[in-house]
Each structure stands twice: as structure tokens, then as C-alpha cells.
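Question: Now follow the chain.
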Amino acid sequence: MPGEVLPRIMTEDASDPTDGDPADAEREQSATDASATGAEATDSEAEAASNASANGQTGDPLVARAAEYDEELAEDVAALRGRADELEAELAEADEENEELENRLKRTQADFQNYKKRAKKRQDQIRATATEDFVERVVTVRDNLVRALDQDEEADIRPGIESTLEEFDRILASEDVGTIDPDPGEAVDPTRHEVMMRVDSDQPEGTVADVYQAGYEMGEKVIRAAQVTVSTGDGQ
């Protein structure tokens, strides 16, 4: 009897390895689960990489990282990254356009400065020419005055002086120069008349009594105001 029981016990121990230490069995199961989890993670990473590659997201670590957790998030990140690249390209293009505009502005400013210099030079030339022409005509008047003075002392030079004055007035008129010579009783114009004093006169009070010195104006610009006296009205 004892000889028959022993072989059966040995056979049972050899056929069921789980009847050993429970801790060993638990460690073996944990290793198996870890291996399976690692395989699943590897498969997930491979799938994410495949999806990223299919969506044109390769080469961007941020997109690849997002793809490990959420494919839609990876697509959004890739879209934002693409938009950022587009904006950077647009910014670079805008910088180039801005630089070109600045260069054009500088060239325009330089051209304008050159134009101003040429215009000023032209104005100076015109002014010099106009002055020369005016002087040529004025010296003729002086020549006439000299000839009048060269006559005998007893000669009547008044007709010659009057003729010279008329010629001089024609020269002034050709330059749009006129005299300011108000009549007595005319209202005082502060822009054209310079009041020297107030005098008793039979003219209305506050009006021109007499002209002390005529003035001149060119066009609408007063060259010299006429010097006048103003009536107090006491002489009426």
C-alpha cells in the first residue's frame, strides 16, 4: 500500500506546475501582462505614426506627440502649424513689400528735393532776367533826366521832365505797378493809406484831407502805402 501511494503523489506534482509557490505564478502573470501592454503601446504608436504620415504630419515632433494620444488633436495641431507657416510666409512677403515701399519713398523724396532745387534755380534765373529787363528800361528814364539837366539854365525843362515822367509811368504800368493817390474826401483805407496826422479841413470828418506822398501797389500787393492827412471836420 505505501508503495502505491507515493508514485501517484509524484505524478500529481509533475502534472500541475501551478501547485507550486503562488508568488512565482503572480510574477509570471505580471510579466505576461506587461508584455501584452508593451505590444499594444507599440501598435498604437505605429498606428499614430502611420496616421500622421498619411496626413502629412511627419517631421513635426509636436504633431507626432499629439498623435500618440489623439488623432483629431494631431490633425488640429498640424492645421495650426500649417496656418502658422502660411502666416510666417505672408509676414516675410509683407516685410519685403514694406522694404520696397521704403526704398521707393526714399527715391521719391530725393527726386522731390532735386526738383525743388531745380525749381528754385529756375526762379532765380527768371527773377534775374526780369530785373535786368526792368533796369534796362529804367536807365532810359535816367538818361532823359540827365539830358534835361544838361540844357541851359534858362531853358524850360518842364516839358522834358513831363515827357520823362510819362515814360516812367508807362514802364511801371507794364510791370502792373500803379499809384495810390486818393482824392480829398475819400474814405481812409488802413491797408493802403498811412495816416500822418489829423488836420482841420472842410472835408468830412475821418476822410482824407490831403495826400502828403503817393503810394504804390503791384497787382493786389501794396508796395508802399500812401501818406495822408485826415480831416477832423472842424473846417466845415
Summary: The longest helix spans residues 71-149. Helices lie at 2-15, 22-54, 61-67, 71-149, 158-174. The first strand starts at residue 177 and ends at 180. DSSP finds five helices and six strands in the chain.
